[in-house]
Structure formats: structure tokens, C-alpha cells
Amino acid sequence: xxxxxxxxxxxxFNILIIMSGAFFIIYSILFKISIKVLxxxxxxxxFGIVVLYFGIRYFIxxxxxxxxxxxxxxxxxxxxxxxxxxxxxx
Length: 90
Prior knowledge:
Elements: H1 3-31, E1 34-37, E2 40-43, H2 44-69
Helix pairs in contact: 1-2
């Protein structure tokens, strides 16, 4: 699979995550959904906002990844996967 196609698939799934977060916010407002967490009722809107936040954050990271992958000077190298030894702290 081409790397550009892979990134577009990730973007599509990410858009679905963002839409599900927005849908859950609206659904929680309309039907007054609350979720019990450690004997405390938390509004479903809070969970929708968290999903929406992480979806948007991941979307921004995907855009940065797309820029990085599409650079011409980037080439595959096995040396990118070698573990580097870290020295002891002084």
C-alpha cells in the first residue's frame, strides 16, 4: 500500500472519530446522558468533548506527518530503526 493512501485512510478514520465526538456531544445534550464514573455522574458532554479534542489533536498530527512523509529528501533507511545507546547521566 502506498504511503499516501495509508495517510488518507488514517485521515478518514480520524474524521469519523471527530464526527462521533461531535455526535455524542449533541446526543448527550438532547437526551441528558450522564455516565457513572466512580460513584459520580459525569455528563456525557464531557466525554464527547474529550473525544473531539483528541480527534482534532490527532488530525493536526496527521497533517504534520503528511508534510514530513511527502518531503523529497526523506528516504528509507534501516539505520532509522537501530536502537541508540544512551550514556549515563552526569
